[in-house]
Amino acid sequence: MIHIVFEQANVAVLQQAMELDEALQGEVVEIKDDYAVGPLLNIYETEGYQARRDWWKTLLEYSPYTDSLNIVDDKLAVHQLLKAIDEQPEQELWIWMGQNAHDVCSYYWLMSQLKEYQGRVQVLYLNNLPFINEKGNIFYPTHLHEIQPKEFRKAMRLARPITLSEFEVDPDEWKKLCQENAMVRFLEGGKKITGKEVDFYDKDIFANLNGAMKLGKLLNTTLGKMKVQTGDTFLVWRIRELAAEGKLEIAGDWNKGWKEIIVKLPGTGAVVTETAEEEQG
Asked: Which of 26, 18, 22, 23 is nearest to 85 (CA)?
């Protein structure tokens, strides 16, 4: 079997689970893009694909991940997947999906290209299912990597084939989302995704901005407290956009990276310096 996951952290935990259970043995492939944010119009065409890459290039500028654009090639990953299952008739694809917009959108993007392999594509969706955490308590994971490796034996029992009906309905749902082309997508529940405005996460940024803060601290605080997660690169892009709109003030040299940037609300009187940030602790 070939396991497909949608986050780097999921790769490591699944490989650990394989060491505990031979029944899970197989190649792990990561779909790297986060299809829960950004443009999707004509995503399967050259023009739409390039527009998305150009958008990501803007986001990754000045970030610690400037090389990421060159290693993210999901089109190639799918090409290699299809080649593998064409050459090996016994091979199955197992798609692992947590209850979050990132995974569900990536599932839609991927499965829409797999209809002719119906019967050989399994999905494992951790949808409102309880697991045991490291402290022995029951919890409901939203991401695959939150599960202990030893719990994957239970998780793999969830595997079921993607039905012919799903191969008919789900790509149509995804097509609507692509045509809507919202910049943020939100998981309502189940596999129901709705488009949101680009400012959807702005409230989290403002709620966690206290005086003049280093960008790194603002990111860590926001990501740690927000109920609906997104990536740090998207949040930084929004901070830059808000600064361009005059809703935030920024000091520092972007060319020196995120660690040099300090953010504050305009007109707060806070001194936008490293000293001010350090005084706040």
From this structure: 26
The conformational region for residue 158 under phi > 0 = left, psi -120 to 50 = alpha, else beta, is alpha
Which residue, 215, 184, 199, is CA-closest to 247? Answer: 199
User: Helix, strand, coil shares of the chain as percentages rounded to 5?
Assistant: 50, 15, 35
Same domain membership, residue 208 and residue 120: no
Q: How many CB atoms lie within 10 A of CB 248?
A: 21
pLDDT of residue 271: 56
Q: Please give the Cα distance from 32 to 5 (Å, whole number).
A: 9
CA atoms 145, 150, 151, 153: torsion sign: positive
Write out residues in the chain with pLDDT < 50, as ranges.
272-281
Task: State the DSSP H helix or E strand holding residue 5, giving kind and residue range, or none if neither.
Answer: strand 2-5
Range of 6's domain? 2-177
Eight-class DSSP state of 272: -
Same domain, 85 and 18: yes
Edge-to-edge strand order for the sheet containing 249-251? 213-214, 262-264, 249-251
Instruction: Say if CB 253 and CB 238 are below 8 A apart.
Output: no
Do 9 and 109 belong together in one domain?
A: yes
The total number of structural domains in the chain stands at 2
* CATH number of the domain that residue 116 is part of: 3.40.1360.10
